[in-house]
Amino acid sequence: MKIKWIASLFVFSFILAACGGQSPSEPAMPTVEEPQPISIPTLTPAPAPTDPPAPAVSMEPSAVAPAPETAAVSFANDVAPIFSASCVNCHGGDQTKAGLDLKTYASLMAGSMNGAVVFPGSPSQSVLVQLAEEGKMPKRGDKLTAEQVQIISDWVAAGAPTN
Fold it and tell me: What is the pLDDT of residue 66?
């Protein structure tokens, strides 16, 4: 009987320990101290920096420089004439090599059988501009001048408007 009682006490102590209880031989749990208030130092704002006075600006007409004028590139007035003179022999009318028709704005923007040739706003991604810059188009006849290529590139960079 004494062995059963010792075994029961041992099992009971084991269960209490496993459940987080304290056995009589363990010391009492330490008490938790109250948190101490934290003192926060008060900060004094630094004085605002003072800017030096702005120089006086004369508003006389001679002192104001005129703004540079940037002419918008027009498809109808600038780009289409280049295509008519150099490109539509192969890309318009009866012939549309690679499925690309450059006679109208709508047919140009429809692209070729390989996809879009103009990416509005991005001349560097536009196949039309790349081939003209590299001198690969037009294949027959005179190559486009640097000014003509620049006009097409500026038009694409401006978003390829229908104007």
Answer: 42
